[in-house]
């Protein structure tokens, strides 16, 4: 039932906060201290979000409803009301402020990034940059000012984050130069100002004998059949863990032995083709009676409407006795990359199959099928090679492959 002004005025605080709902997501939150806060619950991209709409009586019932109406119109247009508010605040602080330019730059690139990547970049800026220099006119920011921001991140032990923010800020400043709001990029003056990060490598097994042991352990996995199948496919296709657990039956063509991962699921937003070996097809055919009626090839434990948890593969490896320093889900990629290079496969074919970043985004968009004949042979021979290691066959070194 919609709220009335009298009902709001007469609402008394209780021991715990409670809500008075007005409909369509709008409600008044009554706190134990007597505060009356307008809130709007909504969903964007499938996720529940809450937007603060002001405090009663400063914001009247009519004003709160008007704000709800505006937010709902934004949702119809595909706009997140929370992001729209932040952008408005940024523009009010000056169209040439760092925050305003950064959000404009982010908005230009966001459609070409994965959701995870774009959210991560914006969150870093909101947490570590905007509070300190976000209102400053971007053309007036100096290298020492930016270094102070980066040092603050470094001092809390997040050196890698400091480097990534340095990189993002450089892109933002160059965008400001290109759009006439700054004369130069001060981040370029900070080259070498931060200590280098230690390169992190995903733990992986590359010794053929130990790979054979791993393959036998996976085949003998006594946990979930779905998890075992995921481990098997991970070893043979060496896709990223996120791509594996989000695999959908609609993307897989068993008849043509091909898995086409849509651009929106890929790190660089480019369609990726995974040729399926006969062994991979066999794994998928075996699991299809169990999960084929649902969306995901590897659904979660609690619901087949959700993909497998991101921790499932790593947890299974721990259960098999492999520590995080020995092997990870991502390590299947390093394992394949190392051995395939040693075996003499064309480096470009390996890189393309690993879906590594293509410097030229236009070229990447059209070359998703590049080196496909060799990639098809390579994926089949890789699966055959794993089978040989699994059975303990004599290891054939690179210079013996023809």
Keywords for this structure?
DNA polymerase, domain 1; globular; hpI Integrase, Chain A; 402 residues; 17 helices; four-stranded antiparallel beta sheet; Double Stranded RNA Binding Domain; single chain; alpha+beta; disordered C terminus; 3 domains
With strands numbered from the N-terminus, the spatial order across the biggest sheet is 1-2-3-4
Helix content: 40-55%
Rg estimate, integer Å: 26 Å
User: What is the CATH class designation of the largest domain?
Assistant: Mainly Alpha
* Distance N to C terminus: 77 Å
Low-confidence stretches: 359-366, 397-402
Query: What's the CATH topology name of the largest domain?
Result: hpI Integrase, Chain A
Strand proportion: 5-15%
On the 0 to 100 scale, the average pLDDT is 88
Secondary structure: number of strands: 7
Number of helices: 17
Q: What's the order of the H and E elements?
A: HEEEEHHHHHHHHHHEEEHHHHHH
Could you give me the name of the CATH homologous superfamily of the largest domain?
Answer: Intergrase catalytic core
CATH architecture of the largest domain: Orthogonal Bundle
Count of individual domains: 3
Major sheet details: 4 strands, antiparallel
Based on helices, strands and strand pairing, what is the structural class?
alpha+beta
3D shape: globular
How is this structure best summarized?
Helices cover 48% and strands 10% of the residues. With 402 residues, the protein is α+β, with helices and mostly antiparallel strands. The strands form 2 sheets. It has a 4-stranded antiparallel β-sheet, with helices on one face. A 3-stranded antiparallel β-sheet has the order 5-6-7.
């Amino acid at each position: 039932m919609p709220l009335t002004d009298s009902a709001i005025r007469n609402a008394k605080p209780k021991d715990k906060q409670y809500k008075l709902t007005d409909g369509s997501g709008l409600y008044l939150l009554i706190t134990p201290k007597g505060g009356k806060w307008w809130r709007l619950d909504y969903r964007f991209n499938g996720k529940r979000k809450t937007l603060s709409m002001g405090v009663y009586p400063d914001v009247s019932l009519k004003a709160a409803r008007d704000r709800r109406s505006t937010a709902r119109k934004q949702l119809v247009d595909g706009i997140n009301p929370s992001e729209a508010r932040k952008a408005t605040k940024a523009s009010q602080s000056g169209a040439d402020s760092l925050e305003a330019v950064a959000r404009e730059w982010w908005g230009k690139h966001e459609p070409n990034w994965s959701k995870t990547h774009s959210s991560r970049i914006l969150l870093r800026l909101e947490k570590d940059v905007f509070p300190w220099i976000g209102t400053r006119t971007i053309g007036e920011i100096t290298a020492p000012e930016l270094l102070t921001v980066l040092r603050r991140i470094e001092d809390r032990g997040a050196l890698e984050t400091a480097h990534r923010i340095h990189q993002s800020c450089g892109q933002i400043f160059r965008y400001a130069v290109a759009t006439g709001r700054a004369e130069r990029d001060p981040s370029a003056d900070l080259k070498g100002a931060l200590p280098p990060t230690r390169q992190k490598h995903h733990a992986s097994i590359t010794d053929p004998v130990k790979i054979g042991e791993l393959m036998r352990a996976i085949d003998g996995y006594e946990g979930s059949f779905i998890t075992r199948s995921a481990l098997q496919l991970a070893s043979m296709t060496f896709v990223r863990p996120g791509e594996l657990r989000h695999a959908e039956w609609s993307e897989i063509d068993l008849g043509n032995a091909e898995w086409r991962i849509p651009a929106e699921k890929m790190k660089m937003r480019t369609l990726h083709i995974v040729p399926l070996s006969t062994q991979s097809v066999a794994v998928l055919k075996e699991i299809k009676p169990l999960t084929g009626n649902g969306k995901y090839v590897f659904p979660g434990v609690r619901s087949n409407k959700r993909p497998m948890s991101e921790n499932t593969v790593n947890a299974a490896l721990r259960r098999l006795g492999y520590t995080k320093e020995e092997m990870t889900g991502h390590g299947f990629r390093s394992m394949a990359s190392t051995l395939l290079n040693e075996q003499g496969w064309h480096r470009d074919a390996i890189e393309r199959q690993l879906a590594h970043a293509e410097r030229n985004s236009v070229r990447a968009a059209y070359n998703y099928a590049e080196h496909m004949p060799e990639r098809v042979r390579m994926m089949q021979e890789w699966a055959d090679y794993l089978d040989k290691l699994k059975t303990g066959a004599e290891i054939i070194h690179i210079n013996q492959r023809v």
